[in-house]
Amino acid sequence: MALPGAYAQYKNNKVLTASPAELTLMLYEGAIKFCNIAMMAIDNKDVQKAYTNIVKAEKIIDYLRVTLDMKYPVAQDFENIYSYLSKRLIEANVKKDKEILEEVHGHLSSVRDTWKEVMRISRES
């Protein structure tokens, strides 16, 4: 059955053909997904799975930080957000604290939703 290979190819093509804005949206959605998995792992007392998925979310936030173009004033605002989220993810990982992950998840969801709205407005103009 070739479906797993076909699905992997579809996902690869989706990334390769995405605009920078769509790639950023995918990163936000990935970080949110990894927070969700980590929260479930904490509930299930699966420390290793929680650790692994928090680290994945941290890596996404780190990538978003290092790719900021600081020539735009709004980039400093994003730097502040990403710096805060990074610190909270580290704290959540050390403590395996679901409440901190819920906070980070909320902030990421808010930024993602705002990003989606910006994408929608820019398509319409």
Characterization of this structure:
It is built from 5 helices and no strands. The chain is mostly helical. It has a single domain, classed as Flagellar protein FliS (Four Helix Bundle (Hemerythrin (Met), subunit A), Up-down Bundle), CATH 1.20.120. The model has no long low-confidence stretch (mean pLDDT 93).
Could you say which overall geometry the principal axes of the C-alpha atoms support? globular
User: What is the architecture at the second tier of CATH?
Assistant: Up-down Bundle
- What name is given to the CATH topology? Four Helix Bundle (Hemerythrin (Met), subunit A)
Query: CATH superfamily, please?
Result: Flagellar protein FliS
Report the span from N to C terminus.
44 Å
Query: Helical element count?
Result: 5
Question: What would CATH call the class?
Answer: Mainly Alpha
Q: From the helix content, strand content and strand pairing, which structural class follows?
A: mainly alpha
Domain module count = 1
Mean pLDDT: 93
Question: Summed up, what is this model?
Answer:
This protein is mainly alpha-helical and 125 residues long.
Secondary structure layout:
Blueprint lengths: L2 H14 L3 H24 L3 H20 L7 H22 L2 H27 L1
Which descriptors apply to this entry?
Four Helix Bundle (Hemerythrin (Met), subunit A); globular; mainly alpha; single chain
